Known about the structure:
By secondary structure, this protein is of the alpha+beta class. The protein folds into three domains: 26-126; 133-274, Butyryl-CoA Dehydrogenase, subunit A, domain 2 (Beta Barrel); 278-595, Butyryl-CoA Dehydrogenase, subunit A, domain 3 (Up-down Bundle). It has helices at 4-24, 29-38, 52-66, 70-75, 78-90, 92-112, 117-127, 268-276, 281-307, 324-352, 378-400, 404-407, 413-423, 430-447, 465-492, 497-501, 505-528, 534-554, 556-561, 567-585, 588-595, 599-602, 611-617, 627-635, and strands at residues 132-136, 152-156, 161-165, 173-175, 184-194, 197-210, 213-214, 218-220, 234-238, 241-243, 254-255, 261-262, 309-310, 318-319.
Amino acid sequence: MTTDSDSALAARQTTIDALETALAGPRLPHDSAHLARILTADIYRDDDRSDSYRRTYAQLTELVRALPPATELFTRRAGLLSVSEWTAVADPSLCLAVLIHYGLCLGTLLEFENEDPAVVAHRKAMESGDKFGAFMVTEIGYGNSSLAVRTQAVYDPETREFVLHTPDVDAVKFTNAAGSDLPKLGVLFARLMVGGTDRGVFPFVFDLSDAAGPRPGVRLSAPAEIPLVSFDYGLVSLNDVRVPNSAWLRDTASIDDSGMFHDPFGDRDRRLQRTLAPVQNVWAMVSTSLAAVARASVAHALAFAAHRPMMSRLTPGEPLLRYRLLRRSLMAALATSWVSTCAANAAGRAWTQSPAVPVPTGTEPGAKTWGPWGASSQMFGAIKAMTTWAAEEVTATSRLRCGVAGCLTRNRFLHHQGLGLVCNAAAGDNLLIVLDAARALVADAEQESPRPQDRSGAAFALEDPRLWLELAGIRQNRLAASISNDATGRLLQGRDAFDTWDPLAGRLRELGVAYGLHLAIDSTVAVLDAVHDAQAATILRNLTAVYALDQIDRHAAWLISEDLLDVDDYRRIESSIMHLCDALAEHCDVLTEAFGYPGGVTRAPIGRTPYAPALASSLAWTCGDDPRSSSSASVQ
Protein backbone atom coordinates (compact mmCIF):
# COMPACT_ATOMS: atom_id res chain seq x y z
CA MET A 1 0.00 0.00 0.00
CA THR A 2 1.37 3.38 -1.04
CA THR A 3 1.08 6.12 1.58
CA ASP A 4 0.95 9.88 1.07
CA SER A 5 4.49 10.00 2.43
CA ASP A 6 5.67 7.50 -0.18
CA SER A 7 4.03 9.51 -2.95
CA ALA A 8 5.64 12.71 -1.72
CA LEU A 9 9.07 11.08 -1.62
CA ALA A 10 8.58 9.68 -5.12
CA ALA A 11 7.51 13.10 -6.43
CA ARG A 12 10.50 14.71 -4.73
CA GLN A 13 12.89 12.21 -6.33
CA THR A 14 11.26 12.75 -9.73
CA THR A 15 11.90 16.48 -9.39
CA ILE A 16 15.52 15.92 -8.36
CA ASP A 17 16.03 13.55 -11.31
CA ALA A 18 14.59 16.14 -13.70
CA LEU A 19 16.84 18.85 -12.27
CA GLU A 20 19.92 16.62 -12.55
CA THR A 21 19.05 15.76 -16.16
CA ALA A 22 18.73 19.45 -17.02
CA LEU A 23 22.10 20.14 -15.39
CA ALA A 24 23.90 17.20 -17.04
CA GLY A 25 23.71 18.43 -20.63
CA PRO A 26 25.77 16.16 -22.93
CA ARG A 27 27.43 14.32 -20.03
CA LEU A 28 26.27 10.74 -19.46
CA PRO A 29 25.10 9.28 -16.11
CA HIS A 30 27.32 6.19 -16.32
CA ASP A 31 30.42 8.40 -16.79
CA SER A 32 29.47 10.40 -13.70
CA ALA A 33 28.86 7.27 -11.64
CA HIS A 34 32.21 5.81 -12.74
CA LEU A 35 34.11 8.97 -11.82
CA ALA A 36 32.30 9.29 -8.50
CA ARG A 37 33.53 5.79 -7.62
CA ILE A 38 37.10 6.52 -8.77
CA LEU A 39 37.45 9.81 -6.90
CA THR A 40 36.39 8.41 -3.52
CA ALA A 41 39.58 6.31 -3.34
CA ASP A 42 42.07 7.18 -0.59
CA ILE A 43 44.70 8.45 -3.05
CA TYR A 44 42.42 11.39 -3.90
CA ARG A 45 42.25 12.58 -0.30
CA ASP A 46 44.06 15.88 0.15
CA ASP A 47 44.50 15.90 3.92
CA ASP A 48 48.27 16.20 3.52
CA ARG A 49 49.48 18.73 0.91
CA SER A 50 53.12 18.72 2.07
CA ASP A 51 54.25 17.20 -1.23
CA SER A 52 51.33 18.42 -3.28
CA TYR A 53 52.85 18.34 -6.77
CA ARG A 54 53.88 14.71 -6.55
CA ARG A 55 50.58 13.80 -4.98
CA THR A 56 48.69 15.47 -7.85
CA TYR A 57 50.70 13.53 -10.43
CA ALA A 58 50.24 10.28 -8.49
CA GLN A 59 46.50 10.97 -8.60
CA LEU A 60 46.71 11.75 -12.31
CA THR A 61 48.50 8.42 -12.92
CA GLU A 62 45.73 6.49 -11.15
CA LEU A 63 43.06 8.42 -13.00
CA VAL A 64 44.65 7.96 -16.43
CA ARG A 65 44.92 4.21 -15.85
CA ALA A 66 41.26 4.03 -14.86
CA LEU A 67 40.07 5.84 -18.01
CA PRO A 68 39.83 4.73 -21.66
CA PRO A 69 42.67 5.71 -24.04
CA ALA A 70 42.76 9.30 -25.25
CA THR A 71 41.84 8.16 -28.76
CA GLU A 72 38.53 6.89 -27.39
CA LEU A 73 37.97 9.89 -25.14
CA PHE A 74 38.50 12.35 -27.99
CA THR A 75 36.16 10.33 -30.17
CA ARG A 76 33.44 10.29 -27.50
CA ARG A 77 34.13 13.67 -25.98
CA ALA A 78 31.31 13.62 -23.45
CA GLY A 79 33.57 11.46 -21.29
CA LEU A 80 36.25 14.18 -21.24
CA LEU A 81 33.63 16.69 -20.12
CA SER A 82 32.70 14.41 -17.22
CA VAL A 83 36.36 14.00 -16.23
CA SER A 84 36.73 17.80 -16.23
CA GLU A 85 33.59 18.23 -14.14
CA TRP A 86 34.34 15.70 -11.42
CA THR A 87 38.05 16.44 -11.00
CA ALA A 88 37.28 20.16 -10.66
CA VAL A 89 34.92 19.49 -7.79
CA ALA A 90 37.19 16.91 -6.13
CA ASP A 91 40.51 18.78 -6.45
CA PRO A 92 41.16 21.81 -8.71
CA SER A 93 44.88 20.94 -8.84
CA LEU A 94 44.02 17.55 -10.33
CA CYS A 95 41.62 19.28 -12.71
CA LEU A 96 44.43 21.52 -13.98
CA ALA A 97 46.59 18.44 -14.51
CA VAL A 98 43.76 16.83 -16.51
CA LEU A 99 43.17 19.94 -18.63
CA ILE A 100 46.87 20.15 -19.52
CA HIS A 101 47.55 16.43 -19.93
CA TYR A 102 44.42 15.64 -21.95
CA GLY A 103 42.93 18.82 -23.36
CA LEU A 104 46.15 20.56 -24.38
CA CYS A 105 48.94 17.99 -24.76
CA LEU A 106 47.13 14.85 -25.91
CA GLY A 107 44.73 17.00 -27.92
CA THR A 108 47.68 18.52 -29.80
CA LEU A 109 49.35 15.14 -30.41
CA LEU A 110 46.13 13.59 -31.71
CA GLU A 111 45.56 16.53 -34.03
CA PHE A 112 49.06 16.52 -35.54
CA GLU A 113 50.59 13.05 -35.07
CA ASN A 114 49.89 11.96 -38.69
CA GLU A 115 50.32 8.30 -37.62
CA ASP A 116 54.04 8.91 -37.08
CA PRO A 117 55.25 5.91 -35.00
CA ALA A 118 57.47 8.03 -32.73
CA VAL A 119 54.67 10.48 -31.95
CA VAL A 120 52.21 7.63 -31.44
CA ALA A 121 54.67 6.12 -28.93
CA HIS A 122 54.77 9.43 -27.02
CA ARG A 123 51.00 9.57 -27.03
CA LYS A 124 50.68 6.01 -25.73
CA ALA A 125 53.15 6.78 -22.92
CA MET A 126 50.85 9.61 -21.87
CA GLU A 127 47.75 7.42 -22.23
CA SER A 128 49.28 4.83 -19.91
CA GLY A 129 50.29 7.36 -17.25
CA ASP A 130 54.00 6.66 -17.78
CA LYS A 131 54.61 10.27 -18.85
CA PHE A 132 52.91 13.58 -18.10
CA GLY A 133 52.37 16.43 -20.54
CA ALA A 134 53.87 19.91 -20.12
CA PHE A 135 52.30 22.51 -22.44
CA MET A 136 54.90 25.11 -23.44
CA VAL A 137 53.45 28.21 -25.14
CA THR A 138 53.76 31.18 -22.78
CA GLU A 139 57.06 33.10 -22.65
CA ILE A 140 57.72 35.34 -19.67
CA GLY A 141 59.16 38.46 -21.33
CA TYR A 142 56.14 39.68 -23.29
CA GLY A 143 52.42 40.11 -22.78
CA ASN A 144 50.35 37.96 -25.14
CA SER A 145 53.56 36.14 -26.09
CA SER A 146 51.73 33.49 -28.14
CA LEU A 147 51.53 36.05 -30.97
CA ALA A 148 55.32 36.43 -31.03
CA VAL A 149 56.91 33.16 -29.91
CA ARG A 150 60.70 33.57 -29.79
CA THR A 151 61.86 30.09 -28.78
CA GLN A 152 63.52 28.63 -31.88
CA ALA A 153 63.57 25.25 -33.54
CA VAL A 154 66.47 25.43 -36.01
CA TYR A 155 66.50 22.82 -38.77
CA ASP A 156 69.83 21.03 -39.29
CA PRO A 157 69.93 19.88 -42.95
CA GLU A 158 72.89 17.57 -42.31
CA THR A 159 71.12 15.38 -39.75
CA ARG A 160 67.50 16.41 -40.49
CA GLU A 161 67.19 17.07 -36.76
CA PHE A 162 65.99 20.19 -34.98
CA VAL A 163 67.86 22.23 -32.38
CA LEU A 164 65.57 23.77 -29.76
CA HIS A 165 66.91 26.95 -28.22
CA THR A 166 65.84 29.72 -25.85
CA PRO A 167 67.54 32.86 -27.25
CA ASP A 168 67.32 34.97 -24.05
CA VAL A 169 65.54 35.24 -20.72
CA ASP A 170 62.51 36.94 -22.29
CA ALA A 171 61.85 33.74 -24.25
CA VAL A 172 61.94 31.44 -21.20
CA LYS A 173 58.80 29.29 -21.10
CA PHE A 174 56.31 29.25 -18.22
CA THR A 175 54.79 25.79 -17.84
CA ASN A 176 54.06 22.89 -15.48
CA ALA A 177 57.59 21.50 -15.23
CA ALA A 178 58.99 22.47 -11.84
CA GLY A 179 58.86 18.83 -10.67
CA SER A 180 62.27 18.18 -12.21
CA ASP A 181 62.47 14.42 -11.60
CA LEU A 182 59.05 13.53 -12.99
CA PRO A 183 58.72 11.95 -16.45
CA LYS A 184 57.56 14.99 -18.43
CA LEU A 185 56.89 15.19 -22.14
CA GLY A 186 57.16 18.73 -23.46
CA VAL A 187 54.71 19.94 -26.10
CA LEU A 188 56.71 22.98 -27.17
CA PHE A 189 55.59 25.80 -29.44
CA ALA A 190 58.64 27.19 -31.22
CA ARG A 191 59.49 29.28 -34.26
CA LEU A 192 60.76 27.02 -37.04
CA MET A 193 63.92 28.34 -38.72
CA VAL A 194 64.88 26.72 -42.03
CA GLY A 195 67.97 28.05 -43.80
CA GLY A 196 67.86 31.14 -41.60
CA THR A 197 64.27 31.93 -42.61
CA ASP A 198 61.35 32.14 -40.17
CA ARG A 199 58.73 29.60 -41.26
CA GLY A 200 56.19 30.18 -38.51
CA VAL A 201 55.30 28.55 -35.20
CA PHE A 202 54.92 24.78 -34.92
CA PRO A 203 54.55 22.32 -32.03
CA PHE A 204 57.39 19.95 -31.14
CA VAL A 205 57.21 16.99 -28.76
CA PHE A 206 60.22 15.74 -26.80
CA ASP A 207 61.29 14.34 -23.42
CA LEU A 208 61.73 17.21 -20.99
CA SER A 209 62.67 15.31 -17.82
CA ASP A 210 62.74 11.85 -16.28
CA ALA A 211 63.51 10.25 -12.91
CA ALA A 212 67.14 11.40 -13.20
CA GLY A 213 66.13 15.04 -13.67
CA PRO A 214 66.08 17.43 -16.65
CA ARG A 215 67.23 15.99 -19.98
CA PRO A 216 70.49 17.29 -21.49
CA GLY A 217 70.24 20.97 -22.40
CA VAL A 218 67.07 21.50 -20.35
CA ARG A 219 67.00 23.86 -17.35
CA LEU A 220 64.03 23.75 -14.97
CA SER A 221 63.40 26.32 -12.24
CA ALA A 222 62.05 25.81 -8.73
CA PRO A 223 58.25 26.15 -8.49
CA ALA A 224 56.69 29.56 -9.10
CA GLU A 225 53.69 29.17 -6.82
CA ILE A 226 50.14 30.15 -7.78
CA PRO A 227 48.11 30.49 -4.55
CA LEU A 228 44.95 28.46 -3.94
CA VAL A 229 45.52 25.92 -6.74
CA SER A 230 48.80 24.19 -6.00
CA PHE A 231 50.62 22.97 -9.10
CA ASP A 232 54.20 22.61 -10.35
CA TYR A 233 54.35 25.75 -12.46
CA GLY A 234 57.86 26.98 -13.17
CA LEU A 235 60.25 28.19 -15.88
CA VAL A 236 61.98 26.22 -18.64
CA SER A 237 65.02 27.24 -20.66
CA LEU A 238 66.44 25.20 -23.54
CA ASN A 239 70.11 25.26 -24.54
CA ASP A 240 70.58 23.68 -27.99
CA VAL A 241 68.44 20.62 -27.29
CA ARG A 242 68.65 18.24 -30.25
CA VAL A 243 65.48 16.37 -31.15
CA PRO A 244 64.78 13.97 -34.04
CA ASN A 245 62.82 14.94 -37.12
CA SER A 246 59.81 13.08 -35.75
CA ALA A 247 59.59 15.59 -32.88
CA TRP A 248 58.24 18.14 -35.37
CA LEU A 249 54.43 18.01 -35.40
CA ARG A 250 54.43 19.30 -38.92
CA ASP A 251 50.74 18.91 -39.85
CA THR A 252 50.66 19.47 -43.65
CA ALA A 253 54.06 21.20 -43.87
CA SER A 254 57.26 19.48 -45.00
CA ILE A 255 60.97 19.96 -45.67
CA ASP A 256 62.18 18.10 -48.74
CA ASP A 257 65.53 16.36 -49.30
CA SER A 258 67.03 19.55 -50.70
CA GLY A 259 66.10 21.50 -47.57
CA MET A 260 63.20 23.38 -49.17
CA PHE A 261 60.28 24.18 -46.86
CA HIS A 262 56.69 23.70 -48.05
CA ASP A 263 53.48 24.69 -46.27
CA PRO A 264 50.06 24.71 -47.98
CA PHE A 265 49.01 27.52 -45.62
CA GLY A 266 51.65 29.77 -47.15
CA ASP A 267 51.22 32.33 -44.39
CA ARG A 268 52.78 32.52 -40.92
CA ASP A 269 49.66 34.03 -39.35
CA ARG A 270 47.43 31.24 -40.64
CA ARG A 271 50.03 28.68 -39.56
CA LEU A 272 50.01 30.15 -36.03
CA GLN A 273 46.23 29.96 -35.89
CA ARG A 274 46.33 26.36 -37.08
CA THR A 275 49.10 25.44 -34.62
CA LEU A 276 47.15 26.85 -31.68
CA ALA A 277 43.74 25.63 -32.88
CA PRO A 278 43.72 22.51 -30.64
CA VAL A 279 43.75 24.85 -27.63
CA GLN A 280 40.05 25.40 -28.20
CA ASN A 281 39.56 21.72 -27.30
CA VAL A 282 40.13 22.74 -23.72
CA TRP A 283 37.66 25.64 -23.74
CA ALA A 284 34.62 23.39 -23.47
CA MET A 285 36.38 21.35 -20.77
CA VAL A 286 37.26 24.50 -18.79
CA SER A 287 33.68 25.78 -19.03
CA THR A 288 32.34 22.47 -17.74
CA SER A 289 34.83 22.49 -14.85
CA LEU A 290 33.98 26.03 -13.79
CA ALA A 291 30.23 25.52 -13.95
CA ALA A 292 30.71 22.46 -11.74
CA VAL A 293 32.68 24.27 -9.02
CA ALA A 294 30.09 27.06 -9.06
CA ARG A 295 27.30 24.55 -8.45
CA ALA A 296 29.25 22.68 -5.77
CA SER A 297 30.16 25.87 -3.89
CA VAL A 298 26.68 27.34 -3.79
CA ALA A 299 25.13 23.97 -2.89
CA HIS A 300 27.46 23.79 0.12
CA ALA A 301 26.62 27.37 1.11
CA LEU A 302 22.88 26.75 0.81
CA ALA A 303 23.04 23.58 2.90
CA PHE A 304 25.04 25.47 5.52
CA ALA A 305 22.61 28.41 5.56
CA ALA A 306 19.56 26.16 5.78
CA HIS A 307 20.78 24.44 8.96
CA ARG A 308 23.07 26.98 10.64
CA PRO A 309 21.27 28.53 13.65
CA MET A 310 21.80 32.28 13.99
CA MET A 311 22.05 33.70 17.52
CA SER A 312 20.57 37.05 16.49
CA ARG A 313 18.61 39.29 18.86
CA LEU A 314 15.92 39.42 16.18
CA THR A 315 15.26 35.68 15.81
CA PRO A 316 17.57 33.61 18.01
CA GLY A 317 18.02 30.06 16.82
CA GLU A 318 16.57 30.60 13.35
CA PRO A 319 18.59 29.36 10.34
CA LEU A 320 20.64 31.80 8.30
CA LEU A 321 18.51 31.22 5.23
CA ARG A 322 15.56 32.92 6.92
CA TYR A 323 17.36 36.25 6.51
CA ARG A 324 16.23 37.63 3.15
CA LEU A 325 19.43 39.51 2.36
CA LEU A 326 21.46 36.31 2.61
CA ARG A 327 18.73 34.33 0.85
CA ARG A 328 18.71 36.76 -2.06
CA SER A 329 22.49 36.62 -2.33
CA LEU A 330 22.70 32.81 -2.36
CA MET A 331 19.72 32.30 -4.66
CA ALA A 332 21.22 34.78 -7.13
CA ALA A 333 24.48 32.80 -6.95
CA LEU A 334 22.55 29.56 -7.51
CA ALA A 335 20.80 31.15 -10.50
CA THR A 336 24.15 32.21 -11.94
CA SER A 337 25.51 28.68 -11.52
CA TRP A 338 22.42 27.33 -13.31
CA VAL A 339 22.70 29.67 -16.30
CA SER A 340 26.48 29.20 -16.61
CA THR A 341 25.89 25.43 -16.56
CA CYS A 342 23.45 25.74 -19.46
CA ALA A 343 25.99 27.84 -21.38
CA ALA A 344 28.80 25.37 -20.64
CA ASN A 345 26.56 22.49 -21.71
CA ALA A 346 25.76 24.26 -24.99
CA ALA A 347 29.48 24.63 -25.68
CA GLY A 348 30.09 21.03 -24.60
CA ARG A 349 27.34 19.72 -26.84
CA ALA A 350 28.68 21.67 -29.83
CA TRP A 351 32.20 20.37 -29.10
CA THR A 352 31.09 16.74 -28.85
CA GLN A 353 29.29 17.07 -32.18
CA SER A 354 32.19 18.67 -34.08
CA PRO A 355 35.01 16.09 -34.18
CA ALA A 356 37.46 18.13 -36.22
CA VAL A 357 39.37 21.24 -35.15
CA PRO A 358 38.53 23.86 -37.81
CA VAL A 359 41.28 24.86 -40.21
CA PRO A 360 41.62 28.67 -40.39
CA THR A 361 41.11 30.26 -43.79
CA GLY A 362 42.72 33.58 -42.92
CA THR A 363 39.48 35.41 -43.76
CA GLU A 364 37.85 35.08 -40.34
CA PRO A 365 36.45 38.46 -39.29
CA GLY A 366 38.56 40.00 -36.57
CA ALA A 367 41.15 37.24 -36.74
CA LYS A 368 44.20 37.96 -34.58
CA THR A 369 43.50 41.56 -33.55
CA TRP A 370 44.42 41.08 -29.88
CA GLY A 371 45.28 37.39 -29.66
CA PRO A 372 45.64 34.35 -31.92
CA TRP A 373 42.11 33.19 -31.12
CA GLY A 374 40.17 35.10 -33.77
CA ALA A 375 40.13 32.04 -36.02
CA SER A 376 38.73 29.85 -33.26
CA SER A 377 35.10 29.49 -32.26
CA GLN A 378 33.69 32.74 -30.93
CA MET A 379 31.04 30.77 -29.01
CA PHE A 380 33.54 28.50 -27.23
CA GLY A 381 35.74 31.44 -26.27
CA ALA A 382 32.92 33.68 -25.06
CA ILE A 383 31.42 30.89 -22.96
CA LYS A 384 34.83 30.03 -21.51
CA ALA A 385 35.19 33.66 -20.37
CA MET A 386 31.60 33.90 -19.15
CA THR A 387 31.77 30.71 -17.06
CA THR A 388 35.11 31.77 -15.57
CA TRP A 389 33.76 35.10 -14.37
CA ALA A 390 30.55 33.45 -13.15
CA ALA A 391 32.52 30.85 -11.17
CA GLU A 392 34.64 33.55 -9.53
CA GLU A 393 31.53 35.48 -8.54
CA VAL A 394 29.56 32.46 -7.29
CA THR A 395 32.41 30.90 -5.30
CA ALA A 396 33.29 34.25 -3.72
CA THR A 397 29.68 34.92 -2.75
CA SER A 398 29.26 31.40 -1.35
CA ARG A 399 32.47 31.72 0.65
CA LEU A 400 31.56 35.12 2.08
CA ARG A 401 28.09 34.02 3.15
CA CYS A 402 29.57 31.19 5.24
CA GLY A 403 31.67 33.44 7.46
CA VAL A 404 34.84 31.91 8.88
CA ALA A 405 33.72 28.47 7.67
CA GLY A 406 34.05 29.79 4.13
CA CYS A 407 37.72 30.62 4.72
CA LEU A 408 38.73 27.10 5.75
CA THR A 409 40.50 25.27 2.93
CA ARG A 410 38.81 22.04 4.00
CA ASN A 411 35.50 23.52 2.93
CA ARG A 412 36.80 23.92 -0.66
CA PHE A 413 35.52 27.43 -1.44
CA LEU A 414 38.98 28.96 -1.79
CA HIS A 415 40.23 26.09 -3.96
CA HIS A 416 37.18 26.36 -6.21
CA GLN A 417 37.54 30.13 -6.40
CA GLY A 418 41.23 29.62 -7.22
CA LEU A 419 40.33 27.53 -10.25
CA GLY A 420 38.35 30.48 -11.57
CA LEU A 421 41.28 32.82 -10.96
CA VAL A 422 43.70 30.55 -12.83
CA CYS A 423 41.33 29.99 -15.76
CA ASN A 424 41.20 33.71 -16.51
CA ALA A 425 44.59 33.25 -18.17
CA ALA A 426 44.66 29.50 -18.86
CA ALA A 427 44.31 28.45 -22.52
CA GLY A 428 44.08 32.06 -23.61
CA ASP A 429 43.47 35.29 -21.69
CA ASN A 430 39.73 35.83 -21.24
CA LEU A 431 39.82 39.56 -21.92
CA LEU A 432 41.71 39.08 -25.20
CA ILE A 433 39.38 36.24 -26.22
CA VAL A 434 36.35 38.45 -25.56
CA LEU A 435 37.87 41.42 -27.42
CA ASP A 436 38.58 39.31 -30.49
CA ALA A 437 35.08 37.80 -30.38
CA ALA A 438 33.65 41.32 -30.21
CA ARG A 439 35.88 42.48 -33.06
CA ALA A 440 34.48 39.62 -35.16
CA LEU A 441 30.92 40.67 -34.27
CA VAL A 442 31.71 44.21 -35.40
CA ALA A 443 33.08 42.83 -38.68
CA ASP A 444 29.84 40.86 -39.08
CA ALA A 445 27.86 44.06 -38.49
CA GLU A 446 29.87 45.75 -41.26
CA GLN A 447 29.34 42.93 -43.76
CA GLU A 448 25.82 41.66 -43.09
CA SER A 449 22.36 43.15 -43.37
CA PRO A 450 21.28 44.88 -40.16
CA ARG A 451 20.02 42.63 -37.38
CA PRO A 452 17.01 43.51 -35.20
CA GLN A 453 17.83 46.46 -32.95
CA ASP A 454 14.33 47.32 -31.79
CA ARG A 455 11.65 45.68 -29.68
CA SER A 456 9.30 43.39 -31.57
CA GLY A 457 6.29 45.27 -30.26
CA ALA A 458 5.01 42.29 -28.30
CA ALA A 459 3.90 43.15 -24.77
CA PHE A 460 6.16 40.75 -22.89
CA ALA A 461 5.93 40.80 -19.10
CA LEU A 462 9.07 41.45 -17.09
CA GLU A 463 9.12 37.78 -16.03
CA ASP A 464 8.69 36.43 -19.59
CA PRO A 465 11.77 34.60 -21.00
CA ARG A 466 11.05 36.04 -24.45
CA LEU A 467 11.69 39.53 -23.07
CA TRP A 468 15.07 38.54 -21.60
CA LEU A 469 16.15 36.95 -24.87
CA GLU A 470 14.94 39.91 -26.93
CA LEU A 471 16.71 42.47 -24.73
CA ALA A 472 19.97 40.49 -24.75
CA GLY A 473 19.92 40.24 -28.55
CA ILE A 474 19.06 43.90 -29.08
CA ARG A 475 21.82 45.02 -26.71
CA GLN A 476 24.38 42.89 -28.57
CA ASN A 477 23.27 44.17 -31.99
CA ARG A 478 23.10 47.84 -31.01
CA LEU A 479 26.54 47.74 -29.42
CA ALA A 480 28.01 46.05 -32.52
CA ALA A 481 26.40 48.58 -34.88
CA SER A 482 27.50 51.55 -32.76
CA ILE A 483 31.11 50.36 -32.56
CA SER A 484 31.12 49.57 -36.28
CA ASN A 485 30.01 53.11 -37.12
CA ASP A 486 32.66 54.66 -34.86
CA ALA A 487 35.42 52.40 -36.20
CA THR A 488 34.48 53.22 -39.78
CA GLY A 489 34.61 56.93 -38.99
CA ARG A 490 38.05 56.61 -37.44
CA LEU A 491 39.38 54.66 -40.41
CA LEU A 492 38.00 57.28 -42.81
CA GLN A 493 39.92 59.90 -40.81
CA GLY A 494 43.12 58.02 -41.63
CA ARG A 495 43.64 56.53 -38.15
CA ASP A 496 45.90 53.49 -37.94
CA ALA A 497 44.71 50.18 -36.46
CA PHE A 498 45.81 51.03 -32.91
CA ASP A 499 44.23 54.49 -32.87
CA THR A 500 41.08 53.01 -34.37
CA TRP A 501 40.53 50.10 -32.01
CA ASP A 502 42.27 50.93 -28.75
CA PRO A 503 39.85 53.77 -27.81
CA LEU A 504 36.98 51.36 -28.49
CA ALA A 505 38.35 48.52 -26.34
CA GLY A 506 36.09 49.27 -23.36
CA ARG A 507 32.98 49.13 -25.53
CA LEU A 508 34.28 46.03 -27.29
CA ARG A 509 34.57 44.33 -23.92
CA GLU A 510 30.96 45.36 -23.24
CA LEU A 511 29.95 43.84 -26.57
CA GLY A 512 31.82 40.61 -25.88
CA VAL A 513 30.12 40.29 -22.49
CA ALA A 514 26.74 41.06 -24.08
CA TYR A 515 27.39 38.31 -26.63
CA GLY A 516 28.21 35.84 -23.86
CA LEU A 517 25.07 36.86 -21.97
CA HIS A 518 22.94 36.39 -25.08
CA LEU A 519 24.42 32.91 -25.62
CA ALA A 520 23.84 32.02 -21.96
CA ILE A 521 20.20 33.12 -21.85
CA ASP A 522 19.46 31.53 -25.22
CA SER A 523 20.92 28.18 -24.14
CA THR A 524 19.05 28.33 -20.80
CA VAL A 525 15.66 29.10 -22.34
CA ALA A 526 16.18 26.16 -24.72
CA VAL A 527 16.73 23.84 -21.74
CA LEU A 528 13.61 25.14 -19.97
CA ASP A 529 11.49 24.05 -22.92
CA ALA A 530 12.71 20.45 -22.52
CA VAL A 531 11.91 20.01 -18.79
CA HIS A 532 8.72 17.97 -18.37
CA ASP A 533 8.42 17.62 -14.59
CA ALA A 534 6.16 20.50 -13.54
CA GLN A 535 7.89 21.17 -10.23
CA ALA A 536 11.38 21.09 -11.75
CA ALA A 537 10.24 23.33 -14.61
CA THR A 538 8.89 25.91 -12.15
CA ILE A 539 12.08 25.85 -10.08
CA LEU A 540 14.33 26.27 -13.12
CA ARG A 541 12.15 28.97 -14.63
CA ASN A 542 12.33 30.89 -11.34
CA LEU A 543 16.11 30.47 -11.21
CA THR A 544 16.39 31.74 -14.78
CA ALA A 545 14.16 34.70 -13.92
CA VAL A 546 16.36 35.63 -10.95
CA TYR A 547 19.43 35.61 -13.20
CA ALA A 548 17.80 37.50 -16.07
CA LEU A 549 16.26 40.17 -13.83
CA ASP A 550 19.56 40.60 -12.01
CA GLN A 551 21.29 41.16 -15.37
CA ILE A 552 18.60 43.62 -16.45
CA ASP A 553 19.14 45.44 -13.15
CA ARG A 554 22.92 45.59 -13.73
CA HIS A 555 22.44 47.08 -17.22
CA ALA A 556 19.39 49.17 -16.36
CA ALA A 557 21.07 52.52 -17.05
CA TRP A 558 21.89 51.50 -20.63
CA LEU A 559 18.50 49.85 -21.20
CA ILE A 560 16.61 52.90 -19.94
CA SER A 561 18.79 55.28 -21.97
CA GLU A 562 18.01 53.22 -25.07
CA ASP A 563 14.24 53.24 -24.33
CA LEU A 564 14.27 49.47 -23.88
CA LEU A 565 13.23 49.42 -20.23
CA ASP A 566 10.41 51.36 -18.61
CA VAL A 567 11.28 53.14 -15.36
CA ASP A 568 8.28 51.61 -13.60
CA ASP A 569 9.43 48.13 -14.65
CA TYR A 570 12.90 48.93 -13.36
CA ARG A 571 11.47 49.85 -9.97
CA ARG A 572 9.74 46.45 -9.80
CA ILE A 573 12.88 44.40 -10.48
CA GLU A 574 14.19 44.07 -6.93
CA SER A 575 10.83 43.15 -5.41
CA SER A 576 10.32 40.58 -8.18
CA ILE A 577 13.74 39.04 -7.46
CA MET A 578 13.01 38.87 -3.73
CA HIS A 579 9.65 37.18 -4.36
CA LEU A 580 11.31 34.60 -6.63
CA CYS A 581 14.04 33.93 -4.04
CA ASP A 582 11.38 33.34 -1.38
CA ALA A 583 9.69 30.79 -3.61
CA LEU A 584 13.00 29.05 -4.36
CA ALA A 585 13.94 28.85 -0.68
CA GLU A 586 11.00 26.50 -0.14
CA HIS A 587 12.86 23.93 -2.26
CA CYS A 588 16.28 24.38 -0.68
CA ASP A 589 16.80 20.70 0.14
CA VAL A 590 15.89 19.62 -3.39
CA LEU A 591 18.19 22.26 -4.90
CA THR A 592 21.18 21.36 -2.73
CA GLU A 593 20.80 17.68 -3.59
CA ALA A 594 20.45 18.29 -7.33
CA PHE A 595 23.22 20.91 -7.62
CA GLY A 596 25.61 19.33 -5.12
CA TYR A 597 28.07 16.44 -5.28
CA PRO A 598 28.64 13.37 -3.08
CA GLY A 599 30.46 14.08 0.16
CA GLY A 600 32.90 11.28 -0.60
CA VAL A 601 34.14 13.31 -3.59
CA THR A 602 34.11 16.84 -2.17
CA ARG A 603 35.20 15.78 1.36
CA ALA A 604 34.02 19.20 2.59
CA PRO A 605 32.70 19.17 6.17
CA ILE A 606 30.47 22.14 5.35
CA GLY A 607 28.44 19.91 3.05
CA ARG A 608 27.42 17.69 5.96
CA THR A 609 24.76 18.24 8.61
CA PRO A 610 25.31 19.01 11.45
CA TYR A 611 28.43 20.98 10.57
CA ALA A 612 30.24 21.21 13.92
CA PRO A 613 30.83 17.46 14.45
CA ALA A 614 31.62 17.06 10.73
CA LEU A 615 34.39 19.65 10.94
CA ALA A 616 35.72 18.31 14.24
CA SER A 617 35.86 14.73 12.97
CA SER A 618 37.72 15.80 9.81
CA LEU A 619 40.71 17.06 11.81
CA ALA A 620 43.49 15.24 13.63
CA TRP A 621 43.67 16.10 17.33
CA THR A 622 46.55 16.32 19.79
CA CYS A 623 45.40 15.59 23.33
CA GLY A 624 46.91 16.20 26.72
CA ASP A 625 46.45 13.87 29.65
CA ASP A 626 42.98 13.49 31.06
CA PRO A 627 42.90 16.05 33.92
CA ARG A 628 40.62 13.81 35.94
CA SER A 629 43.22 11.02 35.79
CA SER A 630 46.01 13.41 36.81
CA SER A 631 43.99 14.77 39.71
CA SER A 632 43.14 11.33 40.94
CA ALA A 633 46.76 10.18 40.75
CA SER A 634 48.04 13.17 42.75
CA VAL A 635 45.55 12.61 45.55
CA GLN A 636 46.60 9.02 45.89
